[in-house]
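Figure 2 data, in text form.
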Amino acid sequence: MVSWQSKVVNPILRFQVKRRLRKATSAAAVRKIFGARMPPPHGVSYRQDVVGGVVGEWVESQREAQGTMLYLHGGGYLACSPRTHRPLTAGFALRGMRVFAPDYRLAPENPFPAAVDDALAVYKGMLERGVFPAELVVCGDSAGGGLSLALILALKAAGLPLPASLQLFSPWTDLALTGGTLKTNFRSEVVLDAETLPLAASAYAVGADTVDPLISPLYGDLAGLPPMFIAASAVEILLDDSRRLAAHAGEAGVAVTLKIWDGMPHAWPLFQFLLPEGREALDEAAAFARRNFRA
């Protein structure tokens, strides 16, 4: 059953975010829309650091860490930052993760492959600092989810050790924009606007082939990837990006868990301070990570 809180939040998001995105014609406009910072949970500390040459922040709680997480924020490759996504990173810190969230470079100033290069540099930097891949999880939402998967493909191609698992919330895995739910969920979606996504895709790809697996990891060779947890909303336009990814991963022999939630906004764990479903999704993702840490 959909919570009463989501029935309050969804109309607000539809008016405050989706309506404005439909009119957005530039990265600056998108950044203004997604620039709001939601209150993170209490009991968490933030420490600025540079890992692999990339600025970011460590997010930690007083709870003993059971593993380390590399968190890549969403925002269509155009917007947002570790600060905008503190509700998510803090939520994981409170669930036993030591989280590093890099402030990776954004388009259009820094188009593909800048974000992938930064994510790869951070991952290598974490290994150089002594983080064991068996105790490391990569996580991301929306574009950050796609970037997380692209990072894993880049690691695989480079012959580097892969993390213990991968968690993705409403991932954007197909910048070629071929998913059927872009049309069928056009009206039910409460955050994203399908007509704005080509702006973000073109600003990031800048003439590169959008089916390049490092741009659209849906089209990559997924064999050999670590266990994957995917959470998506039944009413979001990127639902097919998750469903097709889960299907392809399963066909490639990857242990994949796909959880589809009713009536949730895109990347709803960001609203976990309001939505019980957001907290539940974080609980499930953190539990999945713990189950897959290797001794």
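Caption note: The beta strands are 44-51, 54-61, 67-72, 97-102, 136-141, 165-169, 228-233, 256-261.
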